[in-house]
Amino acid sequence: MMLPRRWKIFLLVAFISLAADQATKVWARHALPAKPAIANVDCSTDVVDKIRDAHCAGTAVPVIGGYWDWRLSMNPGSAFGLFSSQNGARIFLSLVGIGAVIGMLWMLRKSRLDQKVLHYALALVAGGAIGNLVDRIYFGVVTDFVSWHYHDHVWPTFNVADVVLVVGVGLMFIDSQKENKREKAAKAEKMKKAKQDGLVKDLRAE
Staple partner for 59: which of 33, 96, 122, 206, CB 3.0–4.6 Å? Predict the structure, then answer.
């Protein structure tokens, strides 16, 4: 049986998002340097555990001087470092990630065929959620490596999955606005037809 087009879009976009996220994280863990945070620590091996345990720290590699660096970081929290200090974050956020993917599948199933923006949005959110979920289950932390800063302001370090999630949520907002306009137009058209059929009295005509 052939999959409906919306499911094909969902699976393709989610897979591409997941693959891009995991590939860049593998690159970051193997290519980006780390330095000892405490004396006599070798940061060339087991870098995930050593950064997670604060025995090592990622070293900034400038991409655009003064604005953008690569810097390896292990985040026990959610996107952009949120909830990183809470106990039980790994279990809680893993459950949230699984719930998010299930929610995206449910929304896709309920969506209309013409809601193409929503189909892409759901796929991006699912792909990003799975990307960080894989890290959290396998390593206990999420690999982050993009560091943006401007003067004294430094944004929380993030990864491709975080970007994909933000874009997906943005597209969901756009779809919701389109749906609101569609519903208002449909109600207005329904009211207009009711008035033409004499089912509703138009007080303005009196």
Answer: 33
- Catalytic residue, chosen from 49, 144, 197, 202, is 144
**Strands, E, within the chain: which ranges?**
34-36, 56-58, 61-64, 68-75, 142-150, 153-154
Q: Is residue 132 part of a domain?
A: yes
Is the residue at 135 inside a domain?
Answer: yes
Per-residue pLDDT tens digits for 9-34? 999 999 999 999 999 999 999 999 99
Q: Say whether pTM exceeds 0.70.
A: yes
Among 21, 69, 135, 162, which one carries the catalytic annotation?
Answer: 162
Does any domain span residue 154? yes
The predicted structure's pLDDT at residue 186: 77
Domain that holds residue 85: 5-200
Question: Is 175 among the domain residues?
Answer: yes
> Annotated catalytic, 21?
no
